[in-house]
Structures are given as C-alpha cells and as structure tokens.
Amino acid sequence: MNAMKNAEKPTRCDIIVVGAGFGGMYAIYKFREMGFNVVGIEAASDVGGVWYWNRYPGARCDLMSVDYSYGFSDEVQQEWTWSEQFAAQPEILAYANFVADRLELRKHFQFETRVTSAIWDEKAKLWRTTTDRGEVLEAPFCIMATGPISIPKDPEIDGISRFKGQLLRAQKWPHEPIDFSGKRVGVIGTGSTGIQVIQEVGKLVTNCLSSSARQAGPCPCGTMTSARNTTPK
Ligand SMILES: Cc1cc2nc3c(=O)[nH]c(=O)nc-3n(C[C@H](O)[C@H](O)[C@H](O)COP(=O)(O)OP(=O)(O)OC[C@H]3O[C@@H](n4cnc5c(N)ncnc54)[C@H](O)[C@@H]3O)c2cc1C
C-alpha cells in the first residue's frame, strides 16, 4: 500500500498508527473494526516488529508462546497452535504473518517508511506527521506503537570503527545466513540476547568469547515441544 502518494498534499485519516509490531497490528485491527479510517506506517518491510528485526541465532521469547496469541479473535486463536512452550523467532514471526494475512492487516500499512516528526497543530486539532519519504499525514489521533526496544544502541568502544572483521548487531541481524564455521567470534553482552546468541553460535565456531560489564541472571527456560502441532490448519 502507498497511502501517501502525494507529498505536496497532506493525506487525512482518522488515526495514524506508527509501528507494525504486535501492538500496532492490534491497534490497526481494533480501530478498523470500530469503523475508523486508519493508516499504519512501519520502517521495516513487513509486520512483526522486534520479531521482524531480531533474527539472530537463538532468538526466542522468555514468556510462554501462548501469551503471544491474540485473544481478541476466536478464529485466530483456534487456527494456530505453538510447537514449543517458548517459541523461537521464526515461529513468532510466522504467527505475526499469519495474523496479518488472516485479518488482512497489511493493506492498511505503508512499509519501508519511517516517521521523522509528529507535531500537534493546536489550531487544527491534528497531528501532522512527516515521513522519510517526504510525505505528510494528518489525523486527530496518532498512536505510537513503536515499542520499547526498536532502536539499537551501538556500544561505545574505542577503536571499534577500525575493527576489520564482520560486525553484527542482534537487532539488525541480516536476513541471509551467516557462515560462522571455523571463525573466532566475540559476543558483547551477556543479557538474554547475548546468552541466546552464545548458545547457538558457540556450536559452530572455533572460539567464542563473551564479555559483559555486569553479571546477568538468566534462568534456563527448558523449552519443550507443545502437545499440539504448529502451523495454521
Ligand atoms: C528476542 C526477544 C525476546 C523477547 N521476549 C519477550 C517475552 O518473552 N515477553 C515479552 O513480554 N516481551 C518480550 N520481548 C519484548 C518485545 O518488545 C515485545 O514482546 C513485543 O513484541 C513488542 O511489541 P510492540 O508492538 O510494542 O513493539 P515492536 O515489536 O518493537 O514494534 C515497533 C515497530 O515500530 C517500528 N518503528 C519504530 N519507530 C518507527 C518510526 N519512527 N517510523 C516507523 N516505524 C517505526 C519498528 O520498526 C518496529 O517494527 C522480546 C524481545 C526480543 C527482541
């Protein structure tokens, strides 16, 4: 969809939703059902939010998979079952895609577009949002479903710009597979992400060194296969 083809003339709608993660997808669905004209804007090329971006090896939820299931639609709930108690990223992203297809949510989103400003016009009682494509969208309501962790923070390490090896960030993991075989890998951070990465990448490499400023206290999740099978029927 391109809701905002004309950069010269602002596009008007009832509600702007920024973000196509689990929050933004629900907002689009809910407001559409209430009869509002909603437009979603998402920087990524598809739905899923953090589960679209975080494709690093070992990425999975630490809350039970079933808690990710949308409870608002009985149809959606009945048509999906999780294969593991703590689902891995590909399955959570597959679920987001399944919901987007099933509820026809994608047609309301403009993807690969970043909102660069949102300014409240007190006189017109409108939010005027601008995108990195130079488009302007106006609405009385603007929902920031932008999530708490969608912008990664680069580590401030002296000399990092001179590092000659491949530098990967968990949040912006490439879509193509990475060949780690026989390589030496350093992982910075031992929070839940670092630990997930080390467990998977450590199996493939010659040497895996991890480093963190503080000790993390993760618990083994002991992921188990769900009694029922996955994938939509
Ligand atoms: C590996 C991992 C495991 C996690 N496990 C759990 C868990 O077990 N339990 C739990 O509760 N939470 C967990 N989380 C946290 C996660 O943030 C939430 O689960 C949830 O998916 C967040 O959804 P959201 O829609 O609020 O935001 P997000 O999924 O972050 O979606 C926000 C979207 O907004 C877009 N966006 C941001 N700014 C702009 C802009 N200016 N213009 C356009 N688009 C923009 C981003 O591209 C992103 O797609 C985990 C996260 C990760 C990465």
TrEMBL record:
<dbReference type="GO" id="GO:0004497">
    <property type="term" value="F:monooxygenase activity"/>
</dbReference>
<protein>
    <submittedName>
        <fullName>Flavin-containing monooxygenase</fullName>
        <ecNumber>1.14.13.-</ecNumber>
    </submittedName>
</protein>
<keyword id="KW-0521">NADP</keyword>
<keyword id="KW-0560">Oxidoreductase</keyword>
<comment type="similarity">
    <text>Belongs to the FAD-binding monooxygenase family.</text>
</comment>
<feature type="region of interest" description="Disordered">
    <location>
        <begin position="212"/>
        <end position="233"/>
    </location>
</feature>
<keyword id="KW-0285">Flavoprotein</keyword>
<feature type="compositionally biased region" description="Polar residues">
    <location>
        <begin position="223"/>
        <end position="233"/>
    </location>
</feature>
<keyword id="KW-0274">FAD</keyword>
<dbReference type="InterPro" id="IPR050775">
    <property type="entry name" value="FAD-binding_Monooxygenases"/>
</dbReference>
<dbReference type="InterPro" id="IPR036188">
    <property type="entry name" value="FAD/NAD-bd_sf"/>
</dbReference>
<keyword id="KW-0503">Monooxygenase</keyword>
<dbReference type="Pfam" id="PF00743">
    <property type="entry name" value="FMO-like"/>
</dbReference>
<dbReference type="InterPro" id="IPR020946">
    <property type="entry name" value="Flavin_mOase-like"/>
</dbReference>
